[in-house]
Specification:
There is one protein chain. The protein is α+β, with helices and mostly antiparallel strands. It folds into two domains: 2-255, 4-Layer Sandwich (Glutamine Phosphoribosylpyrophosphate, subunit 1, domain 1), CATH 3.60.20.10; 257-342, Arc Repressor Mutant, subunit A (Orthogonal Bundle). Helix content is 27%, strand content 28%. The chain has helices at 13-22, 25-28, 52-58, 112-121, 148-162, 167-177, 264-275, 283-291, 302-315; strands at residues 2-9, 32-39, 42-48, 68-74, 88-90, 95-102, 181-188, 195-199, 205-208, 212-216, 231-232, 237-242, 245-250, 281-282, 319-327, 334-342. The chain has a seven-stranded antiparallel β-sheet. The chain has a six-stranded antiparallel β-sheet with strand order 5-6-7-8-12-13, covered by helices on one side. The protein has a three-stranded antiparallel β-sheet with strand order 14-16-15. Strand 9 and strand 10 (212-216) form a beta hairpin. Helix 8 crosses helix 9 (302-315). The radius of gyration is 19 Å and the shape is globular.
Length: 346
């Protein structure tokens, strides 16, 4: 699981995106970090194995040019290579893709190995390919492991470039080929003024400022000068975001797979009970506990509800955020790992 952010506006995208990542990376990320922006007809991408601080230390990410961009902070992995960080660039600066999620209810139906082999046979170059096994990630015919999201990126590129689809439609086509419980963001040099996105069930919210539209995994990411309260992007939909606004398109063919009772009250009761004993929990631990409230054969929006609960209770003074660190994907490094604890109001 991961955290993401997107920007389309009149200012420089990179500084805003990096701040948005920092404000949420302790929720479920910090092990791999990357950013992509569009400038002068090309998508520019920088990535590291590490958190935002490491990206800033090793690269000039804060000064990456462009007024449209996406950024990503990934959870832990056992291959500590920057090539396993999102966004995944495809083509010569044509497309960048990042995703957040798990196979979930689609696990038994996925065919990543076959798709990776098909794409490699057609000439696709996988930057994440390496010799270290990492189940359940896809394996190429030559035995090398690749990141499943890079397979998604190549499928998106194929639909968009070879298939001549607009990027929003290409995201829907990608999802048909490798359905997962995900949210995704994408850029294309062919559509330089917009971010395209897909949300099946993982968290994604939007907000706006006086000069930009924003997307993020959590409302915690948004700056204080947003015009209206953050709003949830509809589940099972795709969208296009420009500096002028957002337009959504439903993915109706997948609607029956969703559990449409969000259960915000049940999540609130469960988390109140868990936190009442004074023990601290990570967002990961709370999300895994909340998932059990729904039938396993249906997709649900549990992580979004946990993030919303945490934000509301932090704002109301019911919880405290403990800014701790944990072991990182890169040996010897550490990443932000926030814990949340109930405040005793005696």
């Amino acid at each position: 699981m991961c955290n993401m952010a997107a920007y389309a506006g009149k200012g420089q995208a990179a500084p805003v995106l990096l701040r948005m990542l920092e404000k949420q990376e302790g929720l479920w990320g910090g092990h791999f970090t990357g950013i992509s922006t569009i400038h002068e007809g090309k998508v520019h991408t920088l990535r590291v194995c590490g958190d935002v601080a490491e990206l800033l230390r090793k690269t000039d990410a804060e000064h990456l040019p462009g007024q449209v961009g996406i950024a990503h902070s990934r959870s832990m992995g056992n291959i500590p290579l920057e090539t396993w960080a999102h966004p995944f660039p495809v083509g010569d600066g044509e497309v960048a893709y990042c995703g957040n999620g798990v196979a979930g209810i689609f696990a038994e139906k996925q065919n990543y190995n076959a798709l990776a082999a098909e794409l490699a046979g057609a000439g696709a170059e996988f930057l994440s390919a390496n010799e270290q096994p990492s189940p359940p990630m896809p394996v190429l015919p030559d035995g090398r492991t690749v990141h499943c999201s890079e397979v998604n990126a190549h499928l998106l590129y194929r639909a968009h470039v070879a298939g001549a689809m607009d990027l929003q439609s290409a995201l829907q086509q990608m999802f048909r080929e490798v359905s997962s419980e995900i949210t995704a963001l994408a850029l294309s040099s062919r559509e330089p003024e917009q971010v395209s996105a897909l949300r099946f069930n993982q968290p994604l919210m939007w907000a706006c400022t006086s000069d930009a539209m924003l997307l993020a995994s959590s409302a915690m990411a948004f700056p204080e000068n947003i015009f209206t309260p953050p709003a949830v992007v509809p589940a099972c939909s795709t969208l296009v975001m420009t500096a002028a606004g957002i337009s959504c398109r439903p993915m109706t063919e997948f609607g029956s797979l969703m559990h449409h009772d969000e259960g915000a009250y049940r999540v609130s009761v469960l988390l109140d009970e868990l936190l009442a004993g004074g023990k601290s929990f990570t967002a990961v631990e709370l999300s895994l506990a909340a998932r059990k409230l729904w039938p396993p054969e249906k997709a649900c929006c549990y992580t979004h509800l946990v993030y919303s609960y945490l934000r509301e209770n932090l704002m109301n003074g019911n919880l405290v955020q403990l800014n701790e660190t944990g072991n990182a994907s890169l040996p010897g490094a550490a990443v932000p790992e926030w814990r949340f604890q109930k405040i005793n109001k005696r």
